[in-house]
Design goal:
The protein is an all-alpha fold and about 375 residues long. The chain has 15 helices and no strands. It has a domain of about 200 residues. Helix 11 runs antiparallel to helix 12 and helix 11 packs across helix 14. The protein is globular.
């Protein structure tokens, strides 16, 4: 659960006490109060307080209410997990908002996130709820969210689907070409990474570290994952920092020295401004982060720290073998059963010279210079 929940609970409770009917049913002075209560409680992880407020909000702002209700039911870490309910709510929203203007700042994001969630559910189905897989529909929904609504998270999911050799066909002839899909996956990862999407940056950094689908470049991978950590919102930091820890701890002194010379340049090119980073509850600056260490006891530090103290000796890392791939902490928009190709971690090898900091990819999968 999130840190400082007592503070959040106090503010939520004060809103909740604004009005209660004699029978015990929660009432609110206005729909704005209900929405504030519902979203504040949701952000704090207090779903038992969020649901009554969202149910009250259904009468005036049903799309917003149903969207947050779906997220609650899709959360595997909550007490109200029900993927069948979540799927049906997302599906209703996707159908209802199919003609919404992509420039509608209020409803277009809900439409895109709902399409993405429906797609991830349909790719594998929900056996417990009797939902059968429908890959073709999953492809259509994900493509619409990514292209029509230009949703970055949908584009990231589309990239991962393409890298598995799956997803909607993009060729003119209609021929199912896995190589073309992998190329499209690299395209989306490159585009999103250049735009500062932290998930795509972390995913691409791990591929660059291992030389999978792209040219192996460990110094560039270290720089890119360092940027991804800085760009990551609190809800995504755990899995992104897992990848950073693996790369940092397995990077030899030569790789680190090559990377430290370009830390500022990479952050200037691919960093994301703070206003574009997620701040769900206003407590981001109070979050306590875990202390991470390598197998040899070395502290895992940002590259900017090494860049400002280059004379500090860098201990030679011990090679770490990770039994399973670091998995992203799924948001409630992406079903837990959805397929993923989150890359596995591997030990470091001899680093190649650092190229100019460009994460675009050539048709051969090499890093563009």
């Amino acid at each position: 659960m999130r840190i400082f929940k007592l503070a959040v609970a106090g503010s939520v409770a004060s809103i909740l006490m604004l009005g209660t009917a004699m029978a015990g049913t929660v009432v609110f002075r206005s729909s704005d109060d209900a929405m504030k209560q519902g979203i504040s409680a949701f952000n704090g992880g207090y779903y038992e307080l969020a649901l009554p407020a969202l149910e009250a909000l259904e009468a005036t702002k049903p799309q917003i209410a149903h969207f947050y209700e779906a997220r609650i039911y899709a959360d595997n870490e909550g007490a109200y997990t029900d993927h069948g309910k979540a799927f049906h709510l997302y599906k209703e929203l996707a159908d209802e908002l199919q003609d919404v203007d992509p420039d509608d700042d209020d409803l277009a994001p809900i439409a895109a996130k709902s399409l993405t969630a429906v797609s991830m559910y349909l790719r594998d189905g929900i056996p417990s709820a009797g939902i059968q897989p429908d890959v073709e529909e999953a492809n259509r929904d994900l493509q619409r969210a990514a292209l029509t609504f230009n949703d970055e998270d949908a584009q990231f999911e589309l990239a991962k689907v393409y890298l598995r050799g799956e997803g909607p066909d993009m060729t003119v002839t209609g021929y199912d070409d896995p190589a073309s899909k992998i190329e499209n996956g690299r395209h989306w990862l490159s585009r999103l990474s250049q735009a500062g999407h932290p998930g795509a940056q972390a995913f691409l950094a791990d591929l660059m570290w291992r030389g999978k689908f792209v040219q192996k470049n460990q110094a560039a991978a270290l720089n890119l994952i360092d940027v991804a950590v800085a760009n990551a919102p609190p809800s995504e930091r755990v899995w992104i920092e897992d990848i950073y820890q693996n790369i940092f701890c397995n990077a030899g002194e030569g790789v680190r020295q090559q990377a430290t010379g370009r830390v500022a340049e990479w952050h200037n090119r691919y960093g994301r401004s703070p206003d574009l980073q997620e701040s769900r509850d206003g407590l981001d600056d109070l979050t306590v982060e875990p202390v991470r260490t390598c197998a040899n006891g070395e502290l895992v530090r940002p590259m900017s720290v090494l860049a400002t103290d280059p004379k500090k000796p860098i201990p030679q890392p011990q090679m770490i073998s990770t039994p399973t791939a670091p998995q992203p902490r799924r948001s409630s928009l992406i079903p837990a059963g959805a397929a993923s190709i989150q890359p596995a971690s591997e030990a470091a090898a001899v680093a190649a010279p650092v190229p100019a900091p460009v994460v675009g990819l050539t048709p051969n999968g090499e890093t563009a210079r």
